[in-house]
Amino acid sequence: MSNQRSLRAAAAMGIAAAGFAVPGGLGMAAHAEDTPPPPPIQLSVPPITPRPLAVPQVAPMSVAPQQVTRTFQVVSYRPRTTTHKKVLVRLDDDGMLRSGEDRAVPRVTTQFVTVRVDRDATASEVVKAINSRTGRVGDVRTTQRLRAAAKSHTVAWELAPKATPRVPFGPRAASPQQFLARS
């Protein structure tokens, strides 16, 4: 304990005790003028070069388009009179076929075709799928509306979601069919 007291007393007077320089004391000032400052510390650290990050290679996922089932009524009409032709031309004006609307035009053949196509399939892709399934009815070729009637026309009408081949206009005949293509 007495040793610590003497060190404190010496520090208070600014005297270097036991070979130690006391900051702010007389011994320190005399010593600081005689000796040069220490050289700055230099560390030899190699430069850091950034490396490119390794991006994991992910194989592209082959997502198949979602397939949907669509049902069509493909009808071959044979108008015999001018009145039949006028009715046939009016059928696709609004793009819908309601129950009994085509009753005035003689039909030769009716066929229901169910195809499985992509959800975002174009009309031409759907027409190709329909034509691959139709037999005696004939093929549809264009999605344009009918302007003038000829001897025969084949028209593809898409059934409504609640309709089936047994009930082509849905329950209570309330769901019209949609025009898709004609010959």
Question: How would you sum up this structure, described in words?
Answer:
With 183 residues, the protein is an alpha+beta fold. The protein has a domain at 67-182. The protein has helices at residues 2-13, 26-34, 82-91, 123-133; strands at 67-77, 96-97, 107-118, 153-158, 177-182. It has a five-stranded antiparallel sheet with strand order 2-5-4-1-3, covered by helices on one side. The termini are far apart. The mean pLDDT is 78.
What topology emerges from the helices and strands here?
Layout: H1 2-13, H2 26-34, E1 67-77, H3 82-91, E2 96-97, E3 107-118, H4 123-133, E4 153-158, E5 177-182
Strand order, largest beta sheet: 2-5-4-1-3
Mean pLDDT: 78
The gross shape turns out to be: rod-shaped
Instruction: Round the Cα radius of gyration to an integer and report it.
Output: 48 Å
Number of helices: 4
Counting DSSP E segments of at least 2 residues, the number of strands comes to: 5
Helix share of residues? Answer: 10-25%
Strand content: 15-25%
Report the oligomer.
Answer: single chain
Stretches where pLDDT is under 50 for at least 5 consecutive residues are none
Biggest beta sheet attributes: 5 strands, antiparallel
Distance between the termini: 117 Å
Structural class designation: alpha+beta
SSE order in H/E notation?
Answer: HHEHEEHEE
